[in-house]
Amino acid sequence: MPVYKLYVLSAAGDVSDCYDLVGCPDDARAIAMSSSRARTRTMELWLRDRLVQSFPAATNRSRSEQPTSIAEPELGRSPSQPI
Description:
The protein is mainly beta.
């Protein structure tokens, strides 16, 4: 099963944190899991060297517009590393 990387970006566009998304069988599941976390921080979802999706910070969305979460696979932490 692929291991997706979810990178948290600083306001300057630098990687400030990184998470391994374990248990996502495909892009759709990884995007669903990531979108529920990308509410106030800009993030990028990667699979190896391929950008799957960018998530801009969504600080102005109302509560009803927030993405809903499905049963999520394990979210593992890994050290921050450049993309």
